[in-house]
């Protein structure tokens, strides 16, 4: 699996970082980003919940 955030779509609500903090964080401007080295979802079962929690559907999961 590969996790990405569309930075053009992200509004910085922080739901991803609150839901799956081992995979997501926020940059200096408050926008969501995938933690370096965690693009594979790091086996965190909450990644899919973070996708559902994003109010603008800026997070995508690509299955291998």
UniProtKB/TrEMBL annotation:
It comes from the Bacteria. It comes from Streptomyces eurocidicus. Its cofactor is [3Fe-4S] cluster. GO terms for molecular function: 3 iron, 4 sulfur cluster binding; electron transfer activity; iron ion binding. PANTHER family: FERREDOXIN. InterPro entries: 3Fe4S_ferredoxin (IPR001080), Fe-S_cluster_ET (IPR051269). Ferredoxins are iron-sulfur proteins that transfer electrons in a wide variety of metabolic reactions. Coiled coil: none annotated. This is Ferredoxin. The keyword Metal-binding applies. Keywords: 3Fe-4S, Electron transport, Iron, Iron-sulfur, Metal-binding, Transport.
